[in-house]
Specification:
The complex is a heterodimer. Chain A is α/β, with parallel strands linked by helices. Chain A has helices spanning 48-55, 78-88, 104-114, 119-132, 148-160, 178-195, and strands at residues 4-17, 20-33, 37-42, 63-68, 71-72, 89-92, 166-170, 199-202, 214-219, 222-228. In chain A, the strands form 2 sheets. A 6-stranded mixed β-sheet of chain A has the order 6-7-8-3-9-10, sandwiched between helices. In chain A, strands 2-1-4-5 form a 4-stranded antiparallel β-sheet, with helices on one face. By secondary structure, chain B is of the alpha+beta class. Classes of the chains: A alpha/beta, B alpha+beta.
Chain lengths: 233, 404
């Protein structure tokens, strides 16, 4: 087996709401190896989004460690986390992923733009990423001119464009019909195979877990079960 | 689906964002444009006076005025005649480059109040003028659009500043009548944007004649021996104040004014105009600034999720801050450009009206006023954008992403 790209130990994250507290993450331990495609399932409110945000350095836990590609990101402050996120993490969200005023290719360029990559070079890389997701012909369309599935393809290209160690997708098919959802999962799988891209994907749909190597089931801020799968696609 | 113009995609992101809400942005830009329009038009009024005053200051900075006892400032004082023969005696003093006897008076005594400089007659000795043009060219600054000075000894001739020529509707070679006396126009000067534009130059003797007609009580004086004042043009490096004192000591029957006494009244009026501009700028600042703040606060509130996404894909606080300040600066820039455009149209129209009503233009949009107004509007936008941009930059990505 390849080396772990992500090691998570004893994560805890608490939200205070009114008088009470919510244990959004309540002791999460986890290891993900390079090239794995991992699904996270669980009821709404079980802590999936919170976990993804912490794994990607968007949010900091109260306790525990997240070692991403050899760097303990829980020791970094906000200012240091931003460039790290730029290099090592790609995000795909459920919907309204794209900036409406920017074209598809400009959306894909965003991470490179913020990383200071020169204009010509970032355009080239962005077009290449659009090609991976089959959206080259739509490069100069605006999000409003694209279907939901096409928008998600562009969002996936954006997550991949800087070839991050880890792509985190939070219910990327949540707003799509089942056929489009299968196509998107199929796309993620082929990217996983061809680019050896590591994915962690939150999904509600048990049908879609057949694309993944491993399924983690969450409840009340904990991982309560882990299934290892032979991929059957 | 929203209308997408092809040119839209060629625009930078902040401009595209401004175009997302065309009416809202348009109103804000229009608000700034009105403020800048007012700034440009009132500024142009001030700049017109400013250039006039600056010209006056230049004119007065290297000379001493010799007037009769109690005559006061040659432009603003009550006036008292001075013996013409003093001029020849002054010419020999050290520090004197040349002298000019002068009889100045209003072109029309009942011309009514004027804004800026009134039109005047200036009686001069053309030989003295030619000498000054030669030894101290910076002191006169006149050049001819057509014609030239009259020859020494000629009478009934006149050289017109450009605004006087327009006012009298006269060209070189034509005749004009002043106080019943006919003059042949021998030259018209180029525009100087200052005193000479409003001046009609004529031989000293002709000016004396008009003065005598207007002031019958001067008739018992031997008028031909007097002038209204004598300009003493300083040689390079000469101390005007010291020379003024020295002349006053040598000639007990005259008063003298050195450069600082001559320039004093001009500087006061200059300051009044600067305060006027400042006042208008303050109003534009407050009104325009508040509406930019309002627009940008709304924009940030609408785009919380977008900001969250940008941060998730690697935008730092500084990136977001810059994007929003840039957007606000663009709003200011557009308002500034439109305001300047309106101001330039206003300058033309108002000058046309002023030309018809008063005979000379009253407004002057200088380069520094044009650039200054646009820069002011842009800076105003950027400043007003700081607070909303700061809020945008400091949004926490996780919370921003939870908003729809
Ligand atoms: N900003 C927040 N403030 C308070 N509670 C929160 C906040 N974010 C998440 N939570 C709570 O934390 C728990 C986990 O939320 P989340 O990670 O979004 O779950 P999931 O993505 O699995 O639906 C939920 O009970 C949710 O209400
Ligand atoms: Mg969630």
């Amino acid at each position: 087996m390849s080396q772990p790209i992500l090691i998570v130990k004893g994560l805890r994250k608490i939200y205070r709401l009114g008088g009470g507290i919510v244990r959004a993450l309540d002791g999460v331990d986890l290891e993900i190896r390079k090239g794995e495609m991992v699904a996270i399932m669980g009821r709404s409110g079980s802590g999936k989004t919170t976990l993804l945000n912490v794994l990607g350095g968007l949010d900091l836990p109260e306790e525990g460690q997240v070692i991403l590609d050899g760097v303990d990101i829980t020791r970094l402050n906000g200012r240091r986390l931003t460039p790290l996120r730029r290099q090592k993490v790609g995000f795909v969200f459920q919907e309204f992923n794209l900036i409406p005023t920017l074209t598809a290719v400009e959306n894909v360029e965003l991470p490179l733009r913020y990383a200071g990559v020169p204009r010509g070079q970032r355009r080239k890389k962005a077009l290449e990423a659009l090609e991976w997701v089959g959206m080259l012909s739509r490069a100069h369309h605006r999000p409003a001119q694209l279907s939901g599935g096409e928008q998600q393809r562009v969002a996936i290209a954006r997550a991949l464009v800087s070839r991050p160690a880890l792509v985190l997708a939070d219910e990327p098919t949540g707003e799509l019909d089942s056929q489009t959802a299968s196509q998107i999962m199929g796309l993620l799988l082929s990217l996983n195979r061809e680019l050896e891209q590591t994915f962690v994907i939150v999904t509600h749909d048990p049908g879609l877990t057949r694309y993944c190597d491993r399924i983690l089931r969450m409840e009340d801020g904990r991982i309560i079960r882990e299934e290892i799968r032979e991929r059957d696609v | 689906m929203r209308l997408v113009f092809p040119f839209d995609l060629a625009l930078p992101e902040p401009v595209r964002n401004i175009l997302r809400h065309r009416i809202r942005s348009g109103l804000t830009i229009f608000g700034i444009a009105i403020g800048i329009f007012a700034l440009v038009v009132l500024g142009a009024l001030a700049e017109k006076v400013n250039t006039l005053l600056q010209g006056g200051e230049r004119f007065l900075s290297d000379r001493v005025a010799v007037v009769g006892k109690g005559g006061g400032h040659p432009f603003f004082g009550p006036g008292a005649l001075v013996r013409a023969s003093v001029a020849e005696e002054l010419l020999g003093l050290p520090g004197v480059a040349c002298v000019e006897k002068n009889i100045a008076m209003l072109l029309e005594e009942d011309g009514g109040p004027t804004f800026g400089m009134p039109r005047i007659i200036s009686g001069i000795d053309v030989q003295e003028r030619l000498l000054c043009d030669r030894v101290a060219p910076s002191a006169t600054e006149t050049s001819f659009a057509s014609g030239d000075w009259w020859r020494p000894g000629e009478r009934g001739v006149i050289v017109l500043g450009v605004d006087v020529a327009n006012y009298l509707n006269a060209r070189t070679g034509q005749e004009v009548e002043i106080d019943g006396i006919k003059f042949r126009v021998v030259g018209v000067l180029n525009r100087t944007l200052t005193g000479p534009d409003n001046t009609a130059y004529m031989p000293l003797e002709d000016a004396r004649l008009i003065m005598a007609k207007r002031r019958p009580f001067l008739a018992d004086l031997r008028l031909e021996e007097y002038v209204r004042n004598i300009w003493v043009v300083l040689a390079k490096g000469a101390d005007g104040e010291a020379l003024a004192q020295e002349i006053a000591a040598r000639f007990p029957d005259v008063d003298t004014l050195g450069p600082s006494a001559l320039r004093g009244p001009l500087q006061t009026s200059n300051r009044i105009f600067q305060f006027t501009i400042l006042g208008v700028a303050m109003v534009a600042l407050i009104v325009g600034g508040l509406s930019v703040i309002n627009t940008m606060v709304m924009a940030v509130a609408e785009r919380v999720r977008e900001i969250g996404i940008k941060k998730a894909v690697g935008a730092s606080n500084a990136h977001i801050l810059r994007e929003y300040i840039l957007e606000a600066a663009f709003i200011g820039l557009m308002g500034g450009l439109i305001g300047l455009g309106l101001g330039l149209v206003g300058e033309r129209v108002l000058n046309q009206l002023a030309q018809e009503a008063a005979g000379s233009p009253l407004f002057l949009v200088t380069m520094r006023l044009a650039l200054g107004s646009v820069a002011f509007a842009t800076g105003l936008g950027a400043m007003a954008g700081i607070l909303p941009a700061w809020r945008a930059a400091n949004l926490r990505p996780v919370e921003a992403l939870r908003t729809e």
